[in-house]
Amino acid sequence: MIIFTYVVLFFLVIRFSVTLFNFLSNPKLPHFRQRLDGLVSVVIQVKNEESNLLNLLEALRQQDYRNLEIIISHAGLDLTDPALSDPQLRFVAQPEANTDVSLLAPYANGDYMLLLDSNTTIQKGFIYSLIYRAEVFNQPVIAIIPNQNPKGILQKLLLPLQDFVLLNLIPLRVIKMLKGVTLVGLRKDCLFFKAAAFENYSTLAFPVEVLLANKMAWSTNGQDRERILNNATSVFKRNMAGNLLSAILYVFLVVAGPIIIGFGVDPYLLILPAGLIFLTRVMVSFLTAQHPVRNLLLHPLQMVMLGVLLMRAISKQLLTRGQHKR
């Protein structure tokens, strides 16, 4: 039992250290308003019926950066909708299963490419900040993690887990320094490319800088519970690099570990894991513009939902293997 206690505490300390590094390094997209030039091709990917497309188009019209072309990539979008009759909009039909963004390169003419999920919305100054970051720091690819705005108890239990797991496992500032390591497959809500990087990304693994949106980009979510669960499960698997063994170990140490310690050792020893969990939740909440008190109060239920996501990920993996065997 003592060895198990040491293992759990060691893992919690490592997780806290990664979160502390992210908190101190502050991996947020800074606000810049310098007047920069260059055509930006905004590619909006519409993937489901509950898309926030019209709100995103309105946000783009209100941007202070005007040199834009807007391309909508869709699978069966109703183009007879009067709200989509703007002649400045260009539509590209893509198979729903197609995830290779580089195939959109022939349709875009911009010096920069901004890929947005239709369930993302952006604030003024966002595009200026992206261009400035790409040019001044010579960064060919930037992945932005949008802030979450959960509504309803299910979203409040699930959505904060996406950033919580990511920020206590991965030091974001270090990612772009690791040659050949990218996170484009991790989060595709908002990607910004220089044109050359976009055209050659499938053959050249450019380093990706991963930044938090700093309240300049937000994810929106519908009320479909099954879709929310599926998206949360998908993000959880990506945060674990698709390795279910790592996911099982993580959930066991994070959820079951403190409970087992609480029943098996002196209660006074719980002060250390409780303090580490408290500080970790607070730091992640401030980094991602979430409500720290709410996350602390909901932490036990969120950990239960983390177990639910793991079970769903395992069941989907087994189902996929069964279909392949057939």
TrEMBL record:
CDD domains tied to this protein: Glyco_tranf_GTA_type
Gene3D superfamilies the UniProt entry points to: Spore Coat Polysaccharide Biosynthesis Protein SpsA, Chain A
Transport keyword on record: no
GO molecular function terms noted in the UniProt entry: transferase activity
Transmembrane segments: 6-25, 244-263, 269-289, 296-314
Keyword annotations from UniProtKB, A to Z: Membrane, Transferase, Transmembrane, Transmembrane helix
InterPro entries named in the record: Glyco_trans_2-like, Nucleotide-diphossugar_trans
Pfam families hit by this protein: Glycos_transf_2
Glycosyltransferase 2-like domain location: 41-136
The protein's name in its UniProt record: Glycosyl transferase family 2
